[in-house]
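Is this the right way to post structure tokens for a design question? Let me know if I should format differently. Anyway, here goes:
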């Protein structure tokens, strides 16, 4: 029997400002959680990450613009979900396509 009621009821936990909270749970339980771009699921553990700081966001924006303007035939995908058999990741940037550099 799933421990969904205890796992989901404890969500979201409190954490220090820069702390990554780790909660063991199944993929099925993770998929029942409210959608949150700061959450990732990796090998049976949900990672709840703090929001990005201003410096991180500024660098990310500049890098996205640079990649978008420099690469042809590529899609520059910020915050796109990456589904793997043992994880659900949300990388800052993904490149997709068959162009130069992809």
């Amino acid at each position: 029997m799933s421990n969904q009621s205890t796992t989901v009821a404890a969500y979201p936990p409190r954490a220090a400002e820069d702390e990554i909270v780790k909660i063991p749970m199944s993929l099925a339980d993770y998929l029942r959680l409210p959608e949150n771009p700061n959450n990732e699921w990796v090998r049976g553990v949900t990672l709840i990450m703090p929001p990005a700081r201003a410096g991180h966001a500024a660098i990310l924006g500049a890098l996205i613009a640079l990649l978008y303007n420099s690469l042809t035939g590529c899609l520059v995908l910020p915050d796109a979900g990456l589904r793997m058999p043992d994880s659900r990741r949300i990388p800052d940037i993904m490149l997709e396509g068959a162009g130069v550099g992809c």
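Format looks fine. Someone answered above. Worth noting: The helical segments are 4-9, 27-32, 54-70. Residues 1-6 have pLDDT under 50 and may be disordered.
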